Amino acid sequence: MDDSKPREPQELYILVTGANSGLGFSICCRLADEFLSSHHYDDSLTIIFTTRSARKAEDTRHRLEAHLQSSTSSSNAARVKFVSESVDLGDLLSARALSRRLLQTFPKLDAIILNAGIGGWCGIGWLEAIWGILTDLISQVTWPTFKLAHVGVLTDRQTEKEEEPVLGNVFCSNVFGHYMLAHNVAPLLKKANSPNGPGRVVWVSSIEGTINFFNIDDIQGLKSKNPYESSKALTDILALTSDQPYTAPWAVDSFLSNDQTDEKDQVTEENTPTMYVSHPGICATSIVPLALPLVWGMVAAFWLARMLGSPWHSMSTYTGAWSPVFLALSSQGALDAAESPYRESGGGRVKWGSSANRLGVGNVCSTEVDGWGHGGVVGRAVVESDRNRRRKRGVVDLTAEAKGNFEELGRQCWKQMEELRIKWDAILDRAEKDKGAAVAAAET
């Protein structure tokens, strides 16, 4: 007699920020495609995507549904649902409002893919760009040194009355707005115990973000000539050290704690959300605005770099979407297996990147990080494919001293980020209270 219970259909809920175009839009498309090809026919997926306006949201939803209808049958397409939300990650009240809507609307979140962001660039140093591309093509179209950015750009005021601490525009849009959002939806992530395991926070970083651009005494990058790269380096540091004991007082005990969490949903080892970091490789997107002839030149340079052996020129945003989708949709067992060679050698979290070979065939693979190496493993890379992959010029194998410095950097970053979050939560609480009192007074 077969006493096995019938399989219960699973419902997945995944949030994607910044989805109206480029990489974010392709992440949504690839989520739908990979889900339909890999999950049971009884399972369903709800993709909650964000844009900055209702007009963009409606247009994006129509294009996503058109992609879905063109790639599968109508009956299969019914398993995927797109839900739009609006948010401006540079506006903390907007991010807070979104988190409240999510808490009221959805039973859980299996993953949040934190993709939205801005470059903050104001131009290109053309002489340096031309010379660099002619003399050092692969390096300059992977880790460019010629992009120019304004220094010290702040967000608009977050509240109407209070004295506010400074808040960097690129820092807030790329990191802090997402950070506040992730903290506020932690109760939904803790409820995602099936089918993929604990809820996941998937950061979308960049191959350009290295600790060489980051200064712990300027965590917002306000003094930096490379605020974008600084913000992406901070993203890497937070994600790669998020599960370490030296960051636990801030990463787990504080960041993942939430006043709206029911007692039965308190953080435990089984329901603690996990944090991962990905990057899309080098895609041909409009994040750096260029005239059309220059776009063609950019694409040609990217293609040539790939032909010359660069593993990171994914070119298309659909290929670039592979790594965040892999981290959001894979079973926990598959992710643990992918990390196991690094953890068994004394390492930890891996920065996963979207790669492509000369024929454009995509893959997801470990990315070497300054100060963290491949997965935090000291010495030579332990995975053969990592050893054989073309490396950034000048990079050396990870030393114990460099890893120790990176770990201390992670501890300090988590401490500062939590202190900043708590400070801003108090400011926003008072602002909302004052606004509510003013509305009540006007009504009486």
From TrEMBL:
<dbReference type="InterPro" id="IPR051593">
    <property type="entry name" value="Ergosterol_Biosynth_ERG27"/>
</dbReference>
<dbReference type="GO" id="GO:0000253">
    <property type="term" value="F:3-beta-hydroxysteroid 3-dehydrogenase (NADP+) activity"/>
</dbReference>
<dbReference type="GO" id="GO:0006696">
    <property type="term" value="P:ergosterol biosynthetic process"/>
</dbReference>
<keyword id="KW-0521">NADP</keyword>
<comment type="similarity">
    <text>Belongs to the short-chain dehydrogenases/reductases (SDR) family. ERG27 subfamily.</text>
</comment>
<keyword id="KW-0560">Oxidoreductase</keyword>
<keyword id="KW-0752">Steroid biosynthesis</keyword>
<keyword id="KW-0444">Lipid biosynthesis</keyword>
<dbReference type="GO" id="GO:0005811">
    <property type="term" value="C:lipid droplet"/>
</dbReference>
<dbReference type="GO" id="GO:0005741">
    <property type="term" value="C:mitochondrial outer membrane"/>
</dbReference>
<dbReference type="GO" id="GO:0005789">
    <property type="term" value="C:endoplasmic reticulum membrane"/>
</dbReference>
<dbReference type="InterPro" id="IPR036291">
    <property type="entry name" value="NAD(P)-bd_dom_sf"/>
</dbReference>
<keyword id="KW-0443">Lipid metabolism</keyword>
<protein>
    <recommendedName>
        <fullName>3-keto-steroid reductase</fullName>
    </recommendedName>
</protein>
